[in-house]
Every structure is written in structure tokens, then in C-alpha cells.
Amino acid sequence: MTKKTKIKDLTDEEFLHYGSLSCAGCGAILAFRHVLKALGENTIVINSTGCMAVVMQMAVPKIPYFHVLFENGPAVMSGVEQALDILGKRDDANLLVVAGDGGTADIGMGSLSGAVERGHDFIYLCYDNESYMNTGGQRSGTTPFGAATSTTPVGSVIKGENRPMEMRKDVPEIMIAHNTPYVATASIGYPLDLIDKVKKAATIRGPSYIHVFSSCPAGWRSEPKDSVKLAKLAVQTGFIVLFEHEDGKRTFQHLPKKRKPVKDYLELQGRFQHLLEDRETIEKMEEFVEKRLEWIQR
Amino acid sequence: MGLEKHEKFIMKAKSTLVFEPGWSEDNLTGAWRSERPEVDEEKCTNCDICWLVCPDACIKREGGKIEINLKYCKGCGICAEECPVKAIIMVREESD
Asked: Using the beta-carbon criterion (under 8 Å), do A25 and B77 form an inter-chain contact?
């Protein structure tokens, strides 16, 4: 990364009105706030259905904002981009699609794939809280192994999400396989890193994809005050690897020198409480995280 | 005929229709709070980390001072948790 943003350089201007209905300690709205700070007021936001669309009620953003269906955010953005292109105003605005992990990994995958393939110039921001939080916390394609959700509860048959660990949908890798010009992962635990990545994405011609790990106290049954701490712990334990991928090269940010044990991350969340006594599963998780860290740095 | 007759309907529809930009500021989300953040100005080093991590942008950093907007602060406590010098403490709200 070229120039690192410092906290004092950031604008004091806010691009969201007060009174959003996000839960106390919401990670997604924190990510959205940082992203809008990075992009500034000349931004058009298309919001696929998800938590963000519900809490915004179409009234919170101070910038052009539109709420569309779960599945067609990138398709609508393709139209917006083409229209601006014909009017000769393409360079005046940053185009941003915001969607949750359900709208990205499951329902909206088709239109995202299509828009990226056609090469439209926009930024796609996926805030990943690892299940469908605003509809009651059902599992999604990015729910990690072992997480208790309302559709994968802990009982005598299954103990939380039971799909194998390595089968979790890894959307950044899918986008890299699409030859997306810029793919990055970020975490709300490292806001300045996120802002740097969004600023970089805005300068890229063509689609760019940013995957933001954002905690959800309501769905993860964690303390609201731990939201940012959890997002940091996810990076420090190796669950999430922060990187940016450009021109076939991957650079890493905040890679843990000495990885913390995954238990530090699990024990703060209600959805993983049943795993804490299960030493075998934790060892398996530890092994998986280690393997993935090795694989991603290959 | 005024809109009074339809007021009930309008209140209901407010969650899906937008009548004016920023009407969400009518939601005084500070009422959700059970604990309120308080800043110890002597300890505060003006690092602005609390300003950066507040999800609801309820912290102002003007003139080297931290000011908390209690009208909208939901009391999540992230600012107190992330403060490197522990200059923010959460105080239980007393009911009137």
C-alpha cells in the first residue's frame, strides 16, 4: 500500500444521519461509516437487502442511496454505471454496492459474478457477519463451522453448523478466480486499514471487491462492547487473513507474528460456547486455521 | 382536508417510505441505553480512537476535546473498551 491514512487526516464530516436502527455495538454500520468517510460525498450507494438496508430505512445516509432486492445489487449498479457513462458523468462519482454475506455468498452471487465478468467499474462491499442476521440469524454460506444459528442449533443430532470447515464459501477467493482487478479483505478491528483499502479500490478502473469482517453482537451473542475487540481477535487468531490482491499478487496486512489460540476468539461468543469443552474440535480448528494460513501465503 | 385523518397510516408507513431526508433523527436512540460513557478529561490523550470506533458517530472531537452525544448514544461501550488509557468509563443510568 502506498500512503497510509492517519486518524488525524480523516474528515470530521459524517455521511450518515443519527437515529439508525442498528443494534448497540453493530459492526456493519461501523464499517459503512468508515467506508463513506473514505469515499466522500460524491458517492452513489446501492444497498442489497440485508441488515444495512433495514437499519438505514432509506433515511439515514446523506448521500444518494437506494435499497434494492437481495439478489440484484450489482445488476442495478451495472445500469447506474452505464447511465452515468452515457451522460459523461462517470468520473464524478464513486459507485458502491453494499451487501451482507447472505446477499453476497448465497442469493446475490449470480448478479455479482455477472457484473464483475462484464467489467463494470464499481466497488462491491460485503460486510460479513456470518449469517442472515436481520431475519433472525439463520445460517448462510459464510457461517463458520460449529457456530450455533437459529437453523443450526446445538442439540443431540448436530452441534451448530456441521458442514466441514474447509467447505465454507470463501468469497474473496471466488472473486480472485474471476480475475477481479482488486480484491481485499478487511476487518472493523483495523479501521484505518479498511479506509486505505476503500480509497485504493476507488482509484481502480473496473470492479473491485472488499470483504469486511464485521461482528454482530445480537447474532453472535457477544457483548456489544466486544465488537471491535472480536474483529481484532479474529485477525490475531488467524480466522481472518487481511490481504489485498492486485495484478496476481497478494500482500498481507496485520499478519499475526505469533498466532493467538482460537479459544480466545471463541470464548467471547455465545454461538461457540458449546465448543469450549470440546478439546478435539478446537484442536481440529487450530489445525485448519494453521493450514489455511500456510495455504494463503503459498 | 388535512393529513390528520391519515396520521396513523403515515406513522405506520414511515418505516418504508421517506418523507424527508434524515427523518431518522426523530429516533432518539439514546433511550435504548442502560450505561452511559463518561470521559475523564485528565486521562484523555486525544488519540481519537473512541471517535473512530463509535458505530453511531456519537463522539465529537473538536478543539482537542471529546464530547459524547447522549441523545443518540446507544451505550454499547465500544469506546470504553477500546480506549488505550481507559479514560472512558461506563456508568449505570439511573431511572427517573
From this structure: yes
Residues of A in contact with B32 (CB under 8 A): 24
Give ipTM to 2 decimals.
Answer: 0.89
Question: Could you tell me the three cell numbers for A75?
Answer: 445488476
Mutate to test the interface with B, among A6, A52, A228, A229 (most CBs of B within 10 A): A228
Nearest CB to A225 within list B47, B49, B76: B76
Dihedral sign for Cα B8, B10, B14, B15, please.
positive
Cell of A83: 447511465
In total, how many domains does chain A have? Answer: 1
Q: DSSP string of A194-211?
A: HHHHHHHHHHSSS-EEEE
Question: Cβ separation of B52 and A7 shorter than 8 Å?
Answer: yes
B28-92: CATH number: 3.30.70.20
Q: Do A59 and B21 touch (CB under 8 A)?
A: yes
CB-side neighbour CA atoms (13 Å) of A288: 16
CATH number at residue A47: 3.40.50.970
| Cross-chain CB nearest to A57 (options B15, B28, B71) | B15
Question: Roughly what angle, to the nearest 10 degrees, separates helices A27-39 and A191-203?
Answer: 50
Q: Least CA distance to A228: which residue of chain B? A: B78
8 Å CB contact of A18 and B55: no
Segment A161-214, tens digit of pLDDT: 999 998 999 999 999 999 999 999 999 999 999 999 999 999 999 999 999 999
Supply the angle between the helices A27-39 and A227-236 in degrees, to the nearest 10. Answer: 80
Give the structural domain span for A148: 9-296
A15 occurs within a structural domain: yes
Is A67 strand, coil or helix?
strand
The pLDDT tens digits for A256-287 are 999 999 999 999 999 999 999 989 999 999 99
Which of A12, A18, A22, A51 would you mutate first to test chain B, the one with the most B CBs within 10 A?
A: A18
